[in-house]
């Protein structure tokens, strides 16, 4: 990757932690787009994993989405170390973040079918009772959707 592109990518990744949610979201969208084109964004996998520990659910969401998007490029097997940390967010304190995590599992299963047993165990063990009834049903539907995909594999 040429220097100017690398600097641009570094700026986008830095914006993922921004308190300006519009800037962070715009950076996320651009990085997701770039992730679909090549493995250039995969270089930042460790930084995306760090985002999972953020107090901000916005930052956690961005990290979850980019990890799922880049699982397809994981020839170095970095995600093997990160998967358990990722799966903890199936029960994130914020139901929207849990839904982002669960939704990303479809991409992860597609990229790495050998993870299916670990993902299935985590989904089946998920405690959705902590969520308000209005969100609990959505989280449970998301889990059922991924389990259906797993059943087809």
Describe it.
The chain is mainly α and 153 residues long. Helices cover 71% and strands 0% of the residues. Helix 2 (21-37) runs parallel beside helix 4, helix 6 (95-111) packs parallel to helix 8 and helix 7 (116-125) runs antiparallel to helix 8. The longest helix has 20 residues, at 133-152. The protein is globular.
Write the layout of secondary structure elements.
Layout lengths: L2 H13 L5 H17 L7 H7 L5 H14 L7 H10 L7 H17 L4 H10 L7 H20 L1
Helix pairs in contact: 1-2, 2-4, 3-4, 4-6, 6-8, 7-8
The chain-level structural class is mainly alpha
DSSP E strands, number = 0
Count of helical stretches: 8
- Give the overall shape, derived from the CA principal axes: globular
Oligomeric state, counting identical vs distinct chains: single chain
Distance, first to last CA:
36 Å
Proportion in helices: over 70%
Percent of residues in β-strands: under 5%
The largest sheet is:
none
Taking all residues together, what is the mean pLDDT?
93
